[in-house]
Amino acid sequence: MKFFGLILLAITIVILLVFGYFNLPSPIVREDVKFGMTFSARYAEELGLDWRETYIALLDDMGVKKLRLPVYWDLVEKVPGQYDFDAMDWQLAEAKKRGVQIILVVGQRVPRWPECHIPAWANESEDKRKLALLNFIDKTVERYKDNSTVSVWQVENEPFLTFFGVCPAFDKNFLDQEIALVKSLDVTRPILLTDSGELSLWFQAAARGDIFGTTLYRHIYKSGIGYFTYPVGPNFFKAKEWLTRLITGQEHFIVIELQAEPWVSMQIADVPLAEQFRTMDETKLKENVDYVKRVGFSEAYLWGGEWWYWLKTKKYYPAMWETGREIFSKPDTSLSGETSK
């Protein structure tokens, strides 16, 4: 019993030391982090916004020069074999006019709830869905691979976070088929794979992509628990990066989703502003930007610009928008060849 007691004590000490390291303040602030934004026309519409107006405001008034855009399968191919890329064409054309560079997300699982966006007709069987998805990815990559504003292909979004979202059963081998297809169609651009910063091990995603992107959320709502803040500092992400590099050899790490909107118990528009501000406001946004600079990855894509515009135009609360303008007004926010520290 004494032996097991000593083992338990040693384990407890190790856990406390690791937890203490995670929460040590990072003395290094990386000032050359390049900021971008994820934009979802679908989400802008859900907030009651004119998505084109919102998009142009982010480009022209906010000054965003790096965007991640999801290609929604269920919107592009509503009828089998009939493709409507008009909305994507418009977004890429407007980005190109302004020298904005794009991460284009392809697959069935792309940003915004319910995560998987699959046309109803493709869900008749697993085989039909997989074949149709590969065909859709083929059409998308072929359409945009000669577009110079597209700089990176992201294949699926957090595919290994299988317990989150409304999605078919995850098939790792099929994910590899998707990646191989994109690589075969375009050998000139890197492929990005993403995973959850707080809820996942990064190894499987990082081993498959040329670039690895992590999410970074700090203040969230969890059913049964309520509102809370993750009790980890920037060293938590530094440690995960070091371990992932060691195991996978991955050299390129970015933050693909930096929390810049609330995480609440229901749809944002249905929650009072006071409750929204429990998990995000202009002060927390500044804190998150400082936090990500201490993590030290070279790029960070903010998550929530549509909400900022909704606050400004629908709720007459411009503080988030103005804070965002300050972030994007910093020099050297355009894309460079560097993708890691």
Question: Describe it for me?
Answer:
By secondary structure, the chain is α/β, with parallel strands linked by helices. The chain has one domain (2-328): Alpha-Beta Barrel (TIM Barrel), CATH 3.20.20. The protein has helices at 2-22, 41-46, 51-62, 73-76, 86-97, 126-144, 172-185, 203-206, 234-248, 273-276, 282-295, 305-314, 319-328; strands at 34-38, 66-70, 101-106, 150-155, 191-195, 211-216, 219-222, 226-229, 253-259, 299-303. β5, α8 and β6 (211-216) form a beta-alpha-beta unit. The protein is globular, with a radius of gyration of 20 Å. Mean pLDDT is 91; it is low at 3-22 and 332-341.
Short structural summary:
This protein is α/β, with parallel strands linked by helices. 43% of the residues lie in helices and 16% in strands.
Rg over alpha carbons: 20 Å
Helix content: 40-55%
Q: Per CATH, which architecture?
A: Alpha-Beta Barrel
- Strands, count: 10
Number of helices: 13
How can the largest sheet be summarized? 8 strands, parallel, barrel
Spatial strand arrangement across the major sheet: 1-2-3-4-5-6-9-10
N- to C-terminal separation? 48 Å
What is the strand content? 15-25%
Could you say how many structural domains there are in total?
Answer: 1
Using the coordinates above, name the CATH class: Alpha Beta
